[in-house]
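thread from #wetlab-drylab

HS: before we spend reagent money on co-crystallization trials with alpha-D-galactopyranose, can we at least see a predicted complex? here's what I'd submit
DV: go for it
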Amino acid sequence: MKHSLLCFLILLCCTNPLAAEDLTGTWESVHVAPDGNKSYTYFDLVQKADKLSGTVRFPWGDLPLIECAISGNRFHFAAAIDNARFDYEGELVNGVLQMTLRYHDGRQTPIRAERSASGFVVPPKIPLPTLHVVPYNGLASRPPMGWNSWNHFHGDVDDAIIRSTADAMDANGMREAGYTYIVVDDTWEGQRDPQGIIHPNKKFPDMKALAAYVHSKGLKFGIYSTPGSKTCGDYEGSYGHEEQDAKTFAAWGVDYLKYDWCSAFRIYTNSEMRAVYQKMGDALRASGRPIVYSLCQSGKDNVWEWGPLVGGNLWRTTDDIADNWKAMSANGFSQNPLARFAAPGHWNDPDMLEIGNGGMTDDEYHTHMSLWAMLAAPLMAGNDLRSMTKEILSILTSKEVIAIDQDILGKQGGSIKQIGQVEIWERSLADGDIAIAVFNRGDDVAKVSVPWSDLQVSNPVTVRDVWEEKNLIVNKKLETVLNPHAVLMLRLQTK
Ligand code: GLA
Protein backbone atom coordinates (compact mmCIF):
# COMPACT_ATOMS: atom_id res chain seq x y z
CA MET A 1 0.00 0.00 0.00
CA LYS A 2 2.73 2.38 1.10
CA HIS A 3 4.73 1.45 -2.02
CA SER A 4 1.92 2.09 -4.48
CA LEU A 5 1.24 5.49 -2.91
CA LEU A 6 4.88 6.44 -3.41
CA CYS A 7 4.71 5.33 -7.07
CA PHE A 8 1.61 7.44 -7.55
CA LEU A 9 3.27 10.51 -6.06
CA ILE A 10 6.37 10.05 -8.23
CA LEU A 11 4.19 9.66 -11.32
CA LEU A 12 2.20 12.74 -10.41
CA CYS A 13 5.35 14.77 -9.89
CA CYS A 14 6.93 13.65 -13.19
CA THR A 15 3.86 14.28 -15.24
CA ASN A 16 2.66 17.44 -13.58
CA PRO A 17 2.44 19.91 -16.47
CA LEU A 18 2.95 22.82 -14.07
CA ALA A 19 6.42 21.58 -13.02
CA ALA A 20 8.56 23.09 -15.82
CA GLU A 21 11.65 21.03 -16.64
CA ASP A 22 14.79 22.72 -15.48
CA LEU A 23 18.16 22.48 -17.19
CA THR A 24 20.03 20.78 -14.36
CA GLY A 25 21.99 17.76 -15.51
CA THR A 26 24.55 16.63 -18.09
CA TRP A 27 23.80 17.30 -21.74
CA GLU A 28 25.66 15.77 -24.66
CA SER A 29 26.10 17.24 -28.10
CA VAL A 30 27.63 15.19 -30.91
CA HIS A 31 29.15 16.60 -34.07
CA VAL A 32 29.69 14.22 -36.95
CA ALA A 33 32.41 15.48 -39.32
CA PRO A 34 32.29 14.71 -43.05
CA ASP A 35 35.13 12.20 -42.46
CA GLY A 36 32.78 10.30 -40.12
CA ASN A 37 34.50 11.28 -36.86
CA LYS A 38 32.22 12.00 -33.92
CA SER A 39 33.23 14.74 -31.51
CA TYR A 40 31.45 15.35 -28.23
CA THR A 41 30.81 18.35 -26.02
CA TYR A 42 29.15 18.03 -22.61
CA PHE A 43 27.28 20.71 -20.73
CA ASP A 44 27.00 20.18 -16.98
CA LEU A 45 24.24 22.60 -16.02
CA VAL A 46 22.86 23.59 -12.66
CA GLN A 47 19.67 25.61 -12.59
CA LYS A 48 18.34 27.19 -9.42
CA ALA A 49 15.16 29.12 -10.25
CA ASP A 50 16.30 31.67 -12.84
CA LYS A 51 20.01 31.22 -12.05
CA LEU A 52 22.15 29.04 -14.27
CA SER A 53 25.73 27.89 -13.72
CA GLY A 54 27.90 24.99 -14.76
CA THR A 55 30.73 23.79 -16.99
CA VAL A 56 31.24 23.15 -20.68
CA ARG A 57 33.43 20.12 -21.25
CA PHE A 58 35.32 20.10 -24.55
CA PRO A 59 37.64 17.27 -25.56
CA TRP A 60 40.56 19.60 -24.73
CA GLY A 61 39.37 21.24 -21.51
CA ASP A 62 36.62 22.20 -19.11
CA LEU A 63 35.49 25.83 -18.93
CA PRO A 64 33.13 27.40 -16.38
CA LEU A 65 29.97 28.97 -17.76
CA ILE A 66 29.94 32.74 -17.70
CA GLU A 67 27.29 35.37 -18.44
CA CYS A 68 24.42 32.94 -17.92
CA ALA A 69 20.89 34.22 -18.40
CA ILE A 70 17.66 32.29 -18.39
CA SER A 71 14.12 33.34 -19.11
CA GLY A 72 11.38 30.75 -19.49
CA ASN A 73 12.67 28.13 -21.88
CA ARG A 74 15.30 30.43 -23.42
CA PHE A 75 18.84 30.75 -22.11
CA HIS A 76 22.26 32.10 -22.90
CA PHE A 77 25.68 31.23 -21.58
CA ALA A 78 29.28 31.58 -22.70
CA ALA A 79 32.67 30.06 -22.09
CA ALA A 80 35.98 31.77 -22.73
CA ILE A 81 39.68 31.02 -22.72
CA ASP A 82 42.36 33.59 -23.63
CA ASN A 83 41.92 34.16 -27.37
CA ALA A 84 38.72 32.15 -27.84
CA ARG A 85 35.11 32.59 -26.78
CA PHE A 86 32.04 30.40 -27.28
CA ASP A 87 28.55 31.88 -26.93
CA TYR A 88 25.57 29.57 -26.68
CA GLU A 89 22.03 30.79 -27.06
CA GLY A 90 19.00 28.57 -27.27
CA GLU A 91 15.92 26.99 -25.80
CA LEU A 92 14.70 23.75 -24.35
CA VAL A 93 12.31 22.13 -26.81
CA ASN A 94 10.79 18.72 -26.06
CA GLY A 95 13.68 17.73 -23.81
CA VAL A 96 16.37 18.86 -26.26
CA LEU A 97 18.64 21.91 -25.96
CA GLN A 98 18.50 23.60 -29.34
CA MET A 99 21.27 26.17 -29.43
CA THR A 100 23.26 28.41 -31.71
CA LEU A 101 26.98 28.48 -30.99
CA ARG A 102 28.75 31.71 -31.95
CA TYR A 103 32.55 31.75 -32.10
CA HIS A 104 34.64 34.86 -31.38
CA ASP A 105 35.44 35.17 -35.09
CA GLY A 106 31.76 35.48 -36.04
CA ARG A 107 31.22 31.93 -37.31
CA GLN A 108 28.10 30.27 -35.99
CA THR A 109 26.67 26.78 -35.98
CA PRO A 110 23.52 25.06 -34.66
CA ILE A 111 24.06 22.70 -31.71
CA ARG A 112 21.68 20.10 -30.30
CA ALA A 113 22.25 18.56 -26.89
CA GLU A 114 20.39 15.73 -25.22
CA ARG A 115 20.48 14.50 -21.66
CA SER A 116 23.30 12.08 -21.01
CA ALA A 117 24.18 9.80 -18.15
CA SER A 118 27.93 9.70 -18.74
CA GLY A 119 30.18 12.54 -19.92
CA PHE A 120 33.63 11.75 -21.32
CA VAL A 121 34.91 8.22 -20.89
CA VAL A 122 38.32 8.45 -19.24
CA PRO A 123 40.60 5.44 -19.79
CA PRO A 124 42.46 3.92 -16.82
CA LYS A 125 45.76 5.59 -16.02
CA ILE A 126 48.87 3.87 -17.36
CA PRO A 127 51.81 4.28 -14.95
CA LEU A 128 54.46 6.71 -16.17
CA PRO A 129 58.17 6.01 -16.63
CA THR A 130 60.67 7.45 -14.18
CA LEU A 131 62.28 10.67 -15.33
CA HIS A 132 65.53 10.67 -17.26
CA VAL A 133 67.13 12.85 -19.92
CA VAL A 134 66.27 12.07 -23.53
CA PRO A 135 69.38 12.92 -25.57
CA TYR A 136 69.15 15.83 -28.02
CA ASN A 137 68.24 14.60 -31.51
CA GLY A 138 70.51 17.12 -33.23
CA LEU A 139 67.61 18.73 -35.15
CA ALA A 140 66.24 22.28 -35.36
CA SER A 141 69.56 24.03 -34.90
CA ARG A 142 67.58 27.04 -36.19
CA PRO A 143 63.90 27.74 -35.44
CA PRO A 144 61.84 25.36 -37.62
CA MET A 145 60.19 26.93 -40.66
CA GLY A 146 57.29 25.51 -42.61
CA TRP A 147 53.53 25.45 -42.88
CA ASN A 148 50.81 23.92 -40.71
CA SER A 149 47.24 23.25 -41.77
CA TRP A 150 45.43 24.32 -38.59
CA ASN A 151 45.17 28.11 -38.57
CA HIS A 152 43.50 28.30 -41.96
CA PHE A 153 41.92 24.92 -42.66
CA HIS A 154 41.13 23.56 -39.18
CA GLY A 155 39.25 20.28 -39.76
CA ASP A 156 38.79 20.88 -43.49
CA VAL A 157 42.21 19.58 -44.44
CA ASP A 158 42.79 16.64 -46.78
CA ASP A 159 45.35 14.95 -49.00
CA ALA A 160 44.67 17.24 -51.97
CA ILE A 161 45.21 20.39 -49.88
CA ILE A 162 48.55 19.09 -48.59
CA ARG A 163 49.72 18.17 -52.09
CA SER A 164 48.67 21.49 -53.59
CA THR A 165 50.32 23.32 -50.69
CA ALA A 166 53.55 21.44 -51.42
CA ASP A 167 53.16 22.45 -55.09
CA ALA A 168 52.70 26.08 -54.03
CA MET A 169 55.81 26.02 -51.82
CA ASP A 170 57.72 24.43 -54.68
CA ALA A 171 56.68 27.20 -57.09
CA ASN A 172 56.50 30.39 -55.03
CA GLY A 173 60.00 30.64 -53.55
CA MET A 174 59.02 29.70 -50.00
CA ARG A 175 61.21 26.60 -49.97
CA GLU A 176 64.20 28.68 -51.06
CA ALA A 177 63.33 31.22 -48.35
CA GLY A 178 63.73 28.43 -45.76
CA TYR A 179 60.22 27.00 -45.32
CA THR A 180 60.75 23.24 -45.03
CA TYR A 181 58.09 21.37 -43.03
CA ILE A 182 54.53 20.78 -44.19
CA VAL A 183 52.61 19.70 -41.11
CA VAL A 184 49.19 18.04 -41.15
CA ASP A 185 47.54 19.14 -37.92
CA ASP A 186 44.54 17.56 -36.18
CA THR A 187 41.69 15.66 -37.92
CA TRP A 188 43.73 13.24 -40.08
CA GLU A 189 43.25 10.36 -37.62
CA GLY A 190 41.05 7.36 -38.37
CA GLN A 191 40.69 4.11 -36.45
CA ARG A 192 43.14 1.60 -35.03
CA ASP A 193 43.16 -1.89 -36.56
CA PRO A 194 43.03 -5.06 -34.41
CA GLN A 195 46.82 -4.87 -33.99
CA GLY A 196 46.44 -1.34 -32.64
CA ILE A 197 48.02 0.32 -35.65
CA ILE A 198 46.55 3.73 -36.39
CA HIS A 199 45.20 4.49 -39.85
CA PRO A 200 44.26 7.85 -41.31
CA ASN A 201 40.60 8.63 -42.03
CA LYS A 202 39.20 8.87 -45.53
CA LYS A 203 40.51 12.42 -46.09
CA PHE A 204 44.03 10.88 -46.23
CA PRO A 205 43.92 7.69 -48.30
CA ASP A 206 47.67 6.97 -48.08
CA MET A 207 49.90 8.85 -45.62
CA LYS A 208 53.08 7.18 -46.83
CA ALA A 209 52.38 8.23 -50.41
CA LEU A 210 51.54 11.75 -49.23
CA ALA A 211 54.81 12.01 -47.29
CA ALA A 212 56.68 10.76 -50.37
CA TYR A 213 54.97 13.45 -52.46
CA VAL A 214 56.01 16.17 -50.02
CA HIS A 215 59.57 14.77 -49.99
CA SER A 216 59.65 14.76 -53.80
CA LYS A 217 59.29 18.56 -53.64
CA GLY A 218 62.40 18.84 -51.47
CA LEU A 219 60.24 19.45 -48.39
CA LYS A 220 59.71 17.58 -45.12
CA PHE A 221 56.52 16.09 -43.75
CA GLY A 222 54.97 16.59 -40.32
CA ILE A 223 52.01 15.18 -38.44
CA TYR A 224 50.04 15.73 -35.22
CA SER A 225 49.00 13.62 -32.24
CA THR A 226 48.30 13.78 -28.53
CA PRO A 227 49.35 11.85 -25.42
CA GLY A 228 45.63 11.73 -24.54
CA SER A 229 43.16 9.16 -25.78
CA LYS A 230 41.52 11.85 -27.94
CA THR A 231 42.92 14.88 -29.73
CA CYS A 232 41.56 18.38 -29.18
CA GLY A 233 39.20 17.73 -32.11
CA ASP A 234 38.14 14.40 -30.49
CA TYR A 235 40.03 12.19 -32.96
CA GLU A 236 42.06 9.10 -32.02
CA GLY A 237 45.08 9.92 -29.81
CA SER A 238 48.32 8.09 -29.03
CA TYR A 239 47.48 7.16 -25.42
CA GLY A 240 48.81 3.65 -24.72
CA HIS A 241 50.17 3.42 -28.28
CA GLU A 242 53.09 5.84 -28.09
CA GLU A 243 55.82 3.49 -29.35
CA GLN A 244 53.58 1.94 -31.94
CA ASP A 245 52.55 5.35 -33.30
CA ALA A 246 56.13 6.63 -33.37
CA LYS A 247 57.05 3.55 -35.45
CA THR A 248 54.07 4.08 -37.75
CA PHE A 249 54.96 7.76 -38.22
CA ALA A 250 58.58 6.82 -38.97
CA ALA A 251 57.43 4.19 -41.47
CA TRP A 252 55.25 6.79 -43.22
CA GLY A 253 58.27 9.11 -43.52
CA VAL A 254 57.25 11.67 -40.89
CA ASP A 255 59.94 14.26 -40.07
CA TYR A 256 58.11 16.40 -37.49
CA LEU A 257 55.58 15.61 -34.75
CA LYS A 258 53.39 18.19 -33.03
CA TYR A 259 52.27 16.54 -29.79
CA ASP A 260 49.29 18.28 -28.21
CA TRP A 261 48.21 17.78 -24.58
CA CYS A 262 44.42 17.93 -25.27
CA SER A 263 42.46 15.23 -23.41
CA ALA A 264 45.55 13.99 -21.55
CA PHE A 265 44.49 16.41 -18.81
CA ARG A 266 41.67 14.03 -17.89
CA ILE A 267 44.22 11.30 -17.10
CA TYR A 268 47.33 13.09 -15.87
CA THR A 269 48.08 16.14 -13.75
CA ASN A 270 50.16 19.03 -15.05
CA SER A 271 53.07 17.96 -12.86
CA GLU A 272 53.14 14.60 -14.69
CA MET A 273 53.60 16.28 -18.08
CA ARG A 274 57.33 15.88 -18.22
CA ALA A 275 57.07 12.08 -17.90
CA VAL A 276 54.22 12.00 -20.42
CA TYR A 277 56.22 13.99 -23.00
CA GLN A 278 59.36 12.00 -22.22
CA LYS A 279 57.48 8.82 -23.22
CA MET A 280 56.96 10.09 -26.75
CA GLY A 281 60.46 11.63 -26.81
CA ASP A 282 61.87 8.15 -26.12
CA ALA A 283 59.51 6.56 -28.65
CA LEU A 284 60.57 8.97 -31.40
CA ARG A 285 64.20 8.29 -30.66
CA ALA A 286 63.61 4.52 -30.66
CA SER A 287 61.90 4.82 -34.06
CA GLY A 288 65.32 5.44 -35.57
CA ARG A 289 64.10 8.33 -37.75
CA PRO A 290 65.14 11.93 -37.07
CA ILE A 291 61.85 13.60 -36.12
CA VAL A 292 61.53 17.18 -34.89
CA TYR A 293 59.58 17.04 -31.63
CA SER A 294 57.16 19.94 -31.11
CA LEU A 295 55.52 20.08 -27.67
CA CYS A 296 52.11 21.72 -27.53
CA GLN A 297 50.60 22.28 -24.08
CA SER A 298 50.20 26.08 -23.84
CA GLY A 299 53.31 26.52 -21.70
CA LYS A 300 51.89 24.65 -18.71
CA ASP A 301 54.18 23.50 -15.90
CA ASN A 302 56.99 25.82 -17.14
CA VAL A 303 57.66 23.60 -20.14
CA TRP A 304 60.68 25.74 -21.10
CA GLU A 305 62.48 24.35 -18.05
CA TRP A 306 62.13 20.69 -19.07
CA GLY A 307 61.30 20.78 -22.81
CA PRO A 308 64.89 19.99 -23.86
CA LEU A 309 65.11 17.17 -21.29
CA VAL A 310 62.31 15.20 -22.98
CA GLY A 311 63.88 15.62 -26.41
CA GLY A 312 61.69 18.60 -27.34
CA ASN A 313 62.92 20.90 -30.10
CA LEU A 314 60.22 23.53 -29.57
CA TRP A 315 57.44 24.08 -27.10
CA ARG A 316 54.37 26.24 -27.21
CA THR A 317 54.50 28.99 -24.60
CA THR A 318 51.00 30.40 -25.02
CA ASP A 319 47.39 29.52 -25.69
CA ASP A 320 46.19 29.35 -29.28
CA ILE A 321 46.85 32.40 -31.40
CA ALA A 322 43.96 33.93 -33.38
CA ASP A 323 43.99 36.09 -36.50
CA ASN A 324 43.60 39.43 -34.77
CA TRP A 325 45.86 42.09 -33.30
CA LYS A 326 44.84 41.50 -29.69
CA ALA A 327 45.60 37.77 -29.76
CA MET A 328 48.77 37.99 -31.86
CA SER A 329 50.28 40.85 -29.86
CA ALA A 330 49.35 39.23 -26.54
CA ASN A 331 51.18 36.05 -27.57
CA GLY A 332 54.22 37.79 -29.05
CA PHE A 333 54.84 40.62 -26.60
CA SER A 334 54.56 38.36 -23.54
CA GLN A 335 57.68 36.33 -24.28
CA ASN A 336 60.34 38.52 -22.65
CA PRO A 337 60.81 36.47 -19.48
CA LEU A 338 61.43 33.30 -21.50
CA ALA A 339 64.31 34.58 -23.63
CA ARG A 340 67.02 32.69 -21.78
CA PHE A 341 65.36 29.31 -22.45
CA ALA A 342 65.76 29.54 -26.25
CA ALA A 343 68.89 28.09 -27.82
CA PRO A 344 69.83 26.20 -30.98
CA GLY A 345 67.82 22.96 -31.00
CA HIS A 346 65.33 24.23 -28.40
CA TRP A 347 62.89 27.06 -29.09
CA ASN A 348 60.07 28.93 -27.41
CA ASP A 349 57.02 28.77 -29.68
CA PRO A 350 54.43 31.56 -29.35
CA ASP A 351 52.30 29.64 -31.93
CA MET A 352 52.00 29.50 -35.69
CA LEU A 353 51.70 32.49 -37.99
CA GLU A 354 48.38 34.04 -38.96
CA ILE A 355 49.91 36.17 -41.73
CA GLY A 356 47.57 36.18 -44.73
CA ASN A 357 44.47 34.83 -43.00
CA GLY A 358 42.73 38.17 -43.44
CA GLY A 359 42.04 39.36 -39.90
CA MET A 360 44.89 41.87 -39.58
CA THR A 361 46.19 44.84 -41.56
CA ASP A 362 49.35 44.82 -43.61
CA ASP A 363 51.15 46.77 -40.85
CA GLU A 364 49.97 44.25 -38.27
CA TYR A 365 51.22 41.31 -40.34
CA HIS A 366 54.61 43.04 -40.71
CA THR A 367 54.66 43.40 -36.92
CA HIS A 368 53.70 39.72 -36.52
CA MET A 369 56.60 38.59 -38.72
CA SER A 370 59.09 41.04 -37.16
CA LEU A 371 58.12 40.09 -33.62
CA TRP A 372 58.46 36.37 -34.32
CA ALA A 373 61.88 37.04 -35.93
CA MET A 374 63.05 39.02 -32.89
CA LEU A 375 61.88 36.12 -30.72
CA ALA A 376 63.81 33.49 -32.72
CA ALA A 377 60.39 31.85 -32.95
CA PRO A 378 59.51 28.98 -35.29
CA LEU A 379 58.01 30.37 -38.51
CA MET A 380 55.15 28.04 -39.38
CA ALA A 381 52.97 29.79 -41.95
CA GLY A 382 49.27 29.19 -41.34
CA ASN A 383 47.48 30.66 -44.35
CA ASP A 384 46.33 29.25 -47.68
CA LEU A 385 49.59 29.33 -49.65
CA ARG A 386 47.78 28.49 -52.89
CA SER A 387 45.86 31.73 -53.12
CA MET A 388 47.76 34.39 -51.16
CA THR A 389 48.47 37.86 -52.52
CA LYS A 390 51.93 39.00 -53.63
CA GLU A 391 52.07 41.29 -50.58
CA ILE A 392 51.49 38.40 -48.17
CA LEU A 393 54.06 36.24 -49.95
CA SER A 394 56.57 39.06 -49.71
CA ILE A 395 55.98 39.38 -45.94
CA LEU A 396 56.45 35.64 -45.48
CA THR A 397 59.59 35.48 -47.63
CA SER A 398 61.37 38.69 -46.60
CA LYS A 399 64.97 37.56 -46.83
CA GLU A 400 66.54 39.88 -44.30
CA VAL A 401 63.80 39.43 -41.69
CA ILE A 402 64.08 35.66 -42.01
CA ALA A 403 67.87 35.92 -41.67
CA ILE A 404 67.33 37.54 -38.26
CA ASP A 405 64.86 34.85 -37.18
CA GLN A 406 67.23 32.12 -38.34
CA ASP A 407 70.42 33.67 -36.96
CA ILE A 408 72.69 30.83 -35.95
CA LEU A 409 73.53 32.29 -32.53
CA GLY A 410 69.95 31.45 -31.59
CA LYS A 411 69.70 34.19 -28.99
CA GLN A 412 66.11 35.30 -28.42
CA GLY A 413 65.65 39.08 -28.38
CA GLY A 414 63.51 41.15 -26.07
CA SER A 415 62.21 44.55 -25.12
CA ILE A 416 64.84 47.03 -23.94
CA LYS A 417 62.90 50.29 -23.86
CA GLN A 418 59.35 51.48 -23.65
CA ILE A 419 58.25 54.98 -24.58
CA GLY A 420 54.50 55.30 -24.19
CA GLN A 421 52.98 52.78 -26.55
CA VAL A 422 56.27 52.25 -28.38
CA GLU A 423 58.46 49.29 -27.52
CA ILE A 424 62.02 48.95 -28.74
CA TRP A 425 63.41 45.43 -29.00
CA GLU A 426 66.93 44.24 -29.49
CA ARG A 427 68.46 40.95 -30.56
CA SER A 428 72.18 40.08 -30.75
CA LEU A 429 73.27 38.29 -33.91
CA ALA A 430 76.08 35.83 -34.60
CA ASP A 431 78.22 38.24 -36.68
CA GLY A 432 78.12 40.95 -33.99
CA ASP A 433 75.31 42.88 -35.67
CA ILE A 434 72.31 43.95 -33.63
CA ALA A 435 68.71 43.65 -34.76
CA ILE A 436 66.44 46.43 -33.53
CA ALA A 437 62.67 46.46 -33.86
CA VAL A 438 60.60 49.51 -33.01
CA PHE A 439 56.99 48.50 -32.43
CA ASN A 440 54.09 50.92 -32.15
CA ARG A 441 51.62 49.00 -30.01
CA GLY A 442 49.30 51.99 -29.78
CA ASP A 443 46.30 53.06 -31.84
CA ASP A 444 47.77 56.46 -32.77
CA VAL A 445 50.65 57.47 -35.01
CA ALA A 446 53.87 57.54 -32.95
CA LYS A 447 56.90 59.77 -33.47
CA VAL A 448 60.07 58.16 -32.15
CA SER A 449 63.38 59.92 -31.52
CA VAL A 450 65.90 58.12 -29.32
CA PRO A 451 69.68 58.62 -29.15
CA TRP A 452 71.51 55.36 -29.93
CA SER A 453 73.31 55.73 -26.60
CA ASP A 454 69.94 55.27 -24.82
CA LEU A 455 69.75 51.84 -26.45
CA GLN A 456 73.23 50.81 -25.30
CA VAL A 457 74.35 50.81 -28.91
CA SER A 458 77.54 52.72 -29.54
CA ASN A 459 77.19 54.74 -32.72
CA PRO A 460 76.37 52.21 -35.45
CA VAL A 461 78.50 52.04 -38.58
CA THR A 462 75.57 51.09 -40.81
CA VAL A 463 71.85 51.11 -40.20
CA ARG A 464 69.84 48.95 -42.55
CA ASP A 465 66.07 48.84 -42.88
CA VAL A 466 65.53 45.10 -43.33
CA TRP A 467 61.98 45.35 -44.68
CA GLU A 468 63.00 47.93 -47.29
CA GLU A 469 66.38 46.21 -47.81
CA LYS A 470 68.24 49.49 -47.90
CA ASN A 471 70.79 51.32 -45.78
CA LEU A 472 69.62 54.47 -44.04
CA ILE A 473 71.63 57.61 -43.43
CA VAL A 474 73.33 57.16 -40.05
CA ASN A 475 72.88 59.90 -37.49
CA LYS A 476 73.12 60.02 -33.71
CA LYS A 477 69.53 59.08 -33.15
CA LEU A 478 67.01 56.46 -34.04
CA GLU A 479 64.21 58.50 -35.61
CA THR A 480 61.01 57.30 -37.19
CA VAL A 481 57.28 57.85 -37.47
CA LEU A 482 55.14 54.75 -37.12
CA ASN A 483 51.52 54.13 -38.02
CA PRO A 484 49.35 52.39 -35.41
CA HIS A 485 50.52 48.76 -34.93
CA ALA A 486 53.39 49.28 -37.40
CA VAL A 487 57.05 48.35 -37.04
CA LEU A 488 60.48 49.54 -38.13
CA MET A 489 63.02 46.74 -38.19
CA LEU A 490 66.74 47.47 -38.47
CA ARG A 491 70.02 45.63 -38.62
CA LEU A 492 72.92 47.59 -37.16
CA GLN A 493 76.52 46.97 -37.89
CA THR A 494 78.39 48.28 -34.88
CA LYS A 495 82.04 47.53 -35.73
C1 GLA B 1 45.05 22.86 -30.07
C2 GLA B 1 46.37 23.42 -30.59
C3 GLA B 1 46.14 24.01 -31.98
C4 GLA B 1 45.61 22.93 -32.91
C5 GLA B 1 44.34 22.33 -32.33
C6 GLA B 1 43.88 21.12 -33.12
O1 GLA B 1 44.12 23.85 -29.85
O2 GLA B 1 46.89 24.39 -29.72
O3 GLA B 1 47.34 24.56 -32.48
O4 GLA B 1 46.61 21.93 -33.06
O5 GLA B 1 44.53 21.91 -30.99
O6 GLA B 1 42.76 20.50 -32.59
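DV: Residues 150, 185-186, 231-233, 260, 296, 320 surround alpha-D-galactopyranose (CB under 6 Å).
HS: ok that's useful, forwarding to the group
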